[in-house]
# Entry
Amino acid sequence: MTTLTRATSDSATMLGRQLRHLLRYPSLTLMFAGMPIVLLLLFVYVFGGAMGSGLAGADGGRAEYLDYIAPGIMLITVAMVAQGTAISVATDMTEGIIARFRTMDIARVSVLTGHVVGTLIQTLISLAIVTGVALLLGFRPSAGPGEWIAAVGLLSVVTFATTWLSVALGMLSDSVETASNLPMPLMFLPFFSSGFVPTETMPTGLRWFAEHQPFTPVIETLRGLLMGTEIGDSAVLALAWCAGITLAAYIWAKKLYNRDPTR
Amino acid sequence: MTQPPAPPAITATGLRKSFGDHVVLDDIDLEVPSGTIFSLLGPNGAGKTTIVKILSTLIGADSGHVRILGHDLDADPDAVRAAIGVTGQYAAVDGLLTGEENLMLMGNLHRLGRRRARRRTAELLERFDLGDAARKPASTYSGGMRRRLDLAMTLVGDPRLIFLDEPTTGLDPRSRRDMWDLVRDLVAGGVTVVLTTQYLEEADQLADRIAVLDHGSIVAQGTANELKRRIPGGHIRLRFAGTDALEAAARVLGGSRDDDALTLQVPGDGGIDAVRTILDRLDNEAVKAEELSVHTPDLDDVFLHLTGHSSTDNDERKAA
# Structure
């Protein structure tokens, strides 16, 4: 058996393990969808009236604001699941089962790819729930089937990047508590982007940060695909960020996994 | 005609390992013959688990050379991994999966194919008495069941060499005996076992050879009987009502006295004859003992004798 087919078959086995975990504890996936839904309700019904008229003038309201923040809420969902991944990787690393895997003749990276692909599936499920709720609340995207497929593709690419990053963060943590805190910035980054208010309304320093951080081009591209706004060079920037983060995080995660466990 | 001896399962020379400036292993040499049980005996922190981690490819040694089942550990770790099985101190099972799923996971990772994996799983569940719990999550298992599942998972790939790192620590006496029987069965089937333990009795029951480990060095090596001969026998402890009686007894029996506790420790193996002799001699002098207790040799005696400190000292020093 070649190294590649071996890595694939071992990764498939590990993915099977992750999917069983998901099936056994569906409450976890629901929790990851629950938090963004609470934020969605909060932003639409508490802030939505004022924000909507600020955004689109006197005739703007909740409905306009819901359309505006939906992409940001989707990214919060992605970040939320990423945080869960860091926790589950850190938990996994403290369990004897990982030591067992390390002493077996299997493709080493398969433990990690199992986590990553499992998280990707979990994220897509959570995103479907969150988007469903947004549609129920009155989210009215203008996207056709092609744009929807592109949007799902983009969200998957982003998830891939954040998941490899959170896998690395999960392994970096020496405890489950640290693992739940390390990816925190990921949760907050969508707020410091064009996700909830236009960056022009921010003070200069913050505005510079918001316009140059990776989540902004992702949100702009997503908004463009779903709502038909201008995309410009955001798509290229978004994909470049994702590719860079994925590559760096993958190398980092692999290195962390292969180091001597000190425990 | 004698058969040529089988090549040893493990040959390790000059193993050293430090974590920072803390020396964990200091020049360890080991040779484990095929088809035997080899026990590493020592208190917590002696370096037993570190040896197992190095030999099972989990961590690297700072220096030294190891060959396992004919493979060089550094040059070809995957070949070593393919031939060994490890059952750790903390049960290495996936608590979220059922017993059956855990075994199937191992079957898939060993690439047995679906049908063979199923057959092997059913066989092991039966053999390890886990049939009733097969479809329950492993997190609901008792300590003994988890250890059995752990060992069963190790056996899925038919390893020729198995590391058992403190397989019975924390188990109740019955589960411990069950585990011992399982280990004996394995060796009867031709497997080599490396067992770490802090219990002299366990090494005594199971091991063909024992290496006593202290502060990262092997302080003694041999069969259980060879080691026991090196350990002075136990002692008999007598307590008296007053200093006069203690005085009289010490005159007759010798031994070491503790005037505060009013006790006298007399060396002896604790056998009935030894106890009878002591009591007869006390009777002859009309000295009456209030209390008698027999102390048989245990790991502490081994340590006291071999290293000049007790194993609990060692724990305290580690904690400090």
